[in-house]
Amino acid sequence: MSTWSLRAAMVPITRRVRAYFAPVDRQTEAPAIFDPGKHGAFQLDAPPAPWLDLGWVDHFQRSCGTSTESLRASTRGTAVAQFRVPLDARVEFDFREWGKLQMALAAGSEHMNVLASDPGANAQPSGGTPVGAVAVLPGSTASEVVLGAGAADDFSAGDTLAVDADYQQQTGYVGAGIAAAYVSDPADVNHDPNYVRRVTFNLGRVAEKTVTSLLLAQPLLGGAPAAGTGAQKVVAFVDREGGSFFQEWSGLFVAEQESGGRICFFYPRLSPVAMSGRPGAGSGFQREEEVEVLKPIVAIALRAAFVALPHIDENDAQAVLCYRSYFPAGPAAVY
After folding, report:
1. How many domains does the chain have?
2. Above 60 in pLDDT, residue 227?
3. Residue 296 CB partners (closer than 8 Å, separation 6+)
4. Which range of residues forms the domain containing residue 155?
């Protein structure tokens, strides 16, 4: 085989980058782990748990702001050693698909579920007083929500559900399985028993119904509902500019191979940050971007940007912001 044919296989060629996210444990700041030795060859449509597929992204751009300084010695100021300060890495891109998680990541703060409103409720920009929750009964699973005869009639196939516990005046992180918000004072959320369901990521869409239960199209991210959980209908999602809560997730970005190898970029901890702005986009930065499909039809893309937070690698105790893995094609040369 010629040298050229070996070199050609070493060039990664891709069409798009696909994004996967997994929640960070906010109590311990423990990230989800992508182990290239165990997970590297996964099927893009079936990522390993706990990674969630958020679809293809556009304008994927990574940047490194980490600077290097030199330690100098002797009368001539010769550089004798180097060190890195401060650590800084960022990533930004456009989500081409819209969903609760995509919106939450792009906005960066608390993300709200708009619960179906009580007809007599006062109007509120993030949703007024909702129709009361229906108690979830024992025997429910992440894919089947048992409500009992009669109660299931309040929901229809195609409805979206928020399934989580009543707010019990607790402080700290709230949300089943995934930290959705942080409550410092119960008065801040008006002691609202529905508050956790307003922000939870524990959502499901009804695919089918039985007399007593709702069968979901996808499993609840928080797993089987705990005792005392309620279900409420969600009619929309809303995010807001501002707020004190910061989303924090692990991110994995895969440049799938068209010819050659696969490249994976793993960020153990990502937190939202203001975007840099693209040339010609004007001052500041955009939250959405129009992508022309066929005049006058445009697709609306969600812009997102993150700063990488440090993770201590257990193999050598180094502080790391991002891991870049390359899986060479079979016939490729090693170097």
Report:
1. 2
2. yes
3. none
4. 112-239
Return mean pLDDT, the chain: 89
**pLDDT at residue 277 in the model:** 54
Local structure of 71: helix, strand or coil = strand
Last residue of a domain, one of 239, 259, 294: 239
Q: Which of 152, 139, 130 is nearest to 211 (CA)?
A: 152
The 3-state DSSP class for residue 225 equals coil
Q: How many C-beta neighbours within 10 Å does residue 289 have?
A: 16
pLDDT band at 234 (very low <50, low <70, confident <90, very high): very high
pLDDT at residue 183 in the model: 97
Contacts of 277 (CB under 8 A, 6+ apart): 283, 284, 285, 286
Res. 246: pLDDT tops 60: yes
The rounded distance, in Å, linking the Cα atoms of 242 and 173 is 18
Name the domain boundary from 239, 258, 288.
239
Query: By the 8 A CB rule, do 100 and 21 touch?
Result: no
Contacts (Cβ under 8 Å, ≥6 apart) of 214: 144, 145, 147, 152, 155, 161, 204, 206, 208, 231
Instruction: Give the type of residue at 199.
Output: V
Residue 129 and residue 205 in one domain: yes
pLDDT for 281 beyond 80: no
- pLDDT value of position 275: 66
Together in a domain, 94 and 120: no
